[in-house]
Amino acid sequence: MSEKRTRRLSAIMFTDIVGYTALMQEDESRATTLRDRHRTVLRERIEARQGKIVQFYGDGTLSVFPSAVQAVDAAVDIQRRFQLDPPIPVRIGLHIGDIVHDQDGVHGDGVNVAARVQELAVPGSVLISGTVCEELKNHPRLPTRALGDFELKNVQRPLGIHAVAASGLAVPAPADLSSSGNRTKKSIAVLPFVNMSSDLENEYFTDGITEEILNTLVKFDDLKVTARTSSFVFKGKHEDVREIGRALNVGAVLEGSVRKAGNRVRITAQLVDTADGYHLFSNSYDRVLEDIFAVQDEIAHTIARELRVLFPVAVAQAPTMARKPTESTEAYSLYLRGLHRWNQGTPNTTKEALGHFRDALALDPDFALAHTGVARCYVHLGTFGRLRSEEAYPAAQEAAQRAIELDPEIAMGHVSLGLVKLFYDWDLPAARSCLERAIELNPGSAEARHWAGYCYMASGHFDEFLETAQVAASLDPLSLHNLDTLGTAHLHAGSLRDSLIHYDRALEIDPTFRTAIEGRALAYDRLGEHDRAIEEFLRYRALTPGGVGGLGTGAYIFARAGRTEEALGYLAELEELERTSPELTLHFDFTVALTALGRIDEAVERLERAIEARNGAVVFVRHNFAWDDLPLDPRMDEVLAAVGL
C-alpha cells in the first residue's frame, strides 16, 4: 500500500520555551503549568491565523501557515501574550519553504531551516529568514531589522536573518544571537592599519591607505564590508579579534601596518578568521610611493581571492583594477590629509579638510576624489550653519558636478549632489534620484543609505526611511549617527518603544551623544510621558556647549507638558540668542517653538523667513512633531506649496 505524500510551499514556525529543562528539574509543577499555558495560547493564536500545529514536542511546537504574513502575525500575537503574567520565555523562528506532508508528519529543507532560525533567537523575539522578510515589505505594521548573514548547521548557504521589530518584541543585536549560528565569511571589517613610521605625521597616510583598501573591497560583488566608522572604533585598541567579530557581525577582519620612509612604503596585511582567530593569510608589500594605488588594489584582490578559495560562496565576482585617481603623488598625499581631517567630523576640522582638498586640486584640477571632498565639506558646513546656505550649497553643487563629469561612477559625488537637492533646492525627486544612484554604484555605502533615509523622511515615506536606516545600521553597526537615525526612523514609523532601544544603543557607545538624548525626549513626549520627556531634555541641554542648544525643542517639550511659563522662558532665551548672535539662522527653531505655543501668525512669519534664508531644515517641516496635533493655519500650507513642499 503506497504512502500518501503531498508537497506544498508553506510558512513554517518553530517555538520553544527557553530554560524549560532546568525548570522541570527545579519545579516540575510550575514547569508543567507554563507548558500547558504555552500550548493553549499556541492553539488559540495559530488557529486564529489559519495555521496548523503539526507537532508538539516537549516544550516546543512545529506549525505551518498558508502565508508568511499570517505566520508572523501569529508569532507577534503569541509573544505579546507570553509577556503577561505568568511570563513565558519563548523563542520563535520562521521560514518559507517547500515541505513534504506524509503519514509521519512534515519533512523538507524548509523545516530544517526554520528550526535553525529558531535556535538563534533570544527569549521574546521572533526571528525570520530573508524569504519571510521579503513577504513583509508591504506590511508596515510588521517592521523588521536586519541582523546579518549566518551559517547554519546543515544549511548549504549563508542565510540572512532578520528580527521582527513590532512593538513589545525583543529585538536582539547580532552579538546577542545564539552561538549555534556562525557569521558568514563573506563579511569583513578592515581595521585601522598601524602607523609604523618614525614620523607621527604619517598617521594621516596610514588611515588613508586603510580607507582606500576598504573602499576597493566594497566594490566586490556579494562581499559585505563594515563601514569605516565602525571599524575605526577599534583604532588604538587591542581587542580580541573574536570580540571584534561579534561586535561587527563579520566573519573575517583585515589588519595590518604601514611603514613609510621617504619614497618607499611597506604595507603588511593579515586576514583573520573571527571564529577562532586563525590567520587565513599574511603578506608584505614593498613599493615605491608612485605604486601606492596599485598596491591598494593588489591587497584587495588578494583578499577576495583568498576568500573565494577558502569559502566558495564568499565573493562571486571581482571588479577590474581601479583607475589611478591622480598622477600626482603629492596631490594624493594632500587628499589623504584632507580625508584624515574630514573624518574628525567637527566644523573646524572640516574647514581644514577643505583647505587640503583645494590644495590637492591646485596640483591636479582633474582629481575627482578631491572634488568630492570639497563638495562634502561645503555640504557639512552649510548643513550645520557654519557657512550661509547661499555660499555653501552652490559651491558644493559645482564641486559635485565636476567630480561626476570626471568620473560618473563616483558614488560620493552623487551623494553630495543629492544633499544639495535635498537641503538647498528642496527638490525631493531629484534628491532621491541622486541618492539612489549612489546606492546603485556603491551598495555597501552606509553613508549613502543614511542620507537616502532622510530624503524618504522628508517625503513622508516612513516605511522606506525605516528600511533604509536598518540597512545603514547593519553596514555600520557602531556608528552613533546611524543608530540615532534608526531610532528616528522608528519614531516616525510610530514604533516609539523600539526607537528608545536604538537611542539607548547609541548612548551605550557614547553616553554624551546629545542627538540621541534629544530623540529620547521626543519619544517620551509622543508616549505621553511628559515628565520623562522633560528629564531627558534637561539632560540634553546640560551637555550643550554654553547651555544654548535645543531652545526650540525645549519650548516644544514644555508646552506639550502644559508648562507654558517655562516654555515661554525658552522662547525668551531663543530671542536673546538671536539678538547676540546675528550670524545664526534660527527661524526654524522659532517656527517650532511658536507653533507649539499656539502662536501661529508669528510661526508663519518665521517659516517665511526660514524659506527666504534657505534654511535646510525647512525640507522636514511637514513632518516635524511640533504641529502633529495642531490644526494648521492655511497660510502655512500656502507658504510651503510655493516652494514645492
Core attributes:
645 residues, Alpha-Beta Plaits, Rossmann fold, 15 strands, 6-stranded mixed sheet, single chain, 9-stranded mixed sheet, Serine Threonine Protein Phosphatase 5, Tetratricopeptide repeat, alpha+beta, 26 helices
Mean pLDDT comes to: 82
Radius of gyration, in Å, reads: 27 Å
Structural class: alpha+beta
List the total number of helices.
26
How far is the first residue's CA from the last residue's CA?
72 Å
Q: Any idea what the CATH superfamily of the domain at 6-182 is called?
A: Nucleotide cyclase, GGDEF domain
The helicity comes to 40-55%
Query: CATH class of the domain at 6-182, anyone?
Result: Alpha Beta
Proper CATH architecture of the domain at 6-182 = 2-Layer Sandwich
Shape: globular
Identify low-pLDDT runs.
312-321
What is the total tally of β strands? 15
Sketch the major β-sheet: 9 strands, mixed
Strand content: 15-25%
Q: CATH topology of the domain at 6-182, anyone? A: Alpha-Beta Plaits
Q: Can you characterise this structure?
A:
With 645 residues, the protein is an alpha+beta fold. Among the domains are: 6-182, Nucleotide cyclase, GGDEF domain (Alpha-Beta Plaits, 2-Layer Sandwich); 187-310, Rossmann fold (3-Layer(aba) Sandwich), CATH 3.40.50.10610; 325-443, Tetratricopeptide repeat domain (Serine Threonine Protein Phosphatase 5, Tetratricopeptide repeat, Alpha Horseshoe). Helix content is 53%, strand content 15%. It is built from 26 helices and 15 strands. Strands 1, 2, 3, 4, 5, 6, 7, 8 and 9 form a nine-stranded mixed beta sheet that branches. Helix 1 packs antiparallel against helix 2 (28-48) and helix 14 packs parallel to helix 16 (446-459). The radius of gyration is 27 Å and the shape is globular.
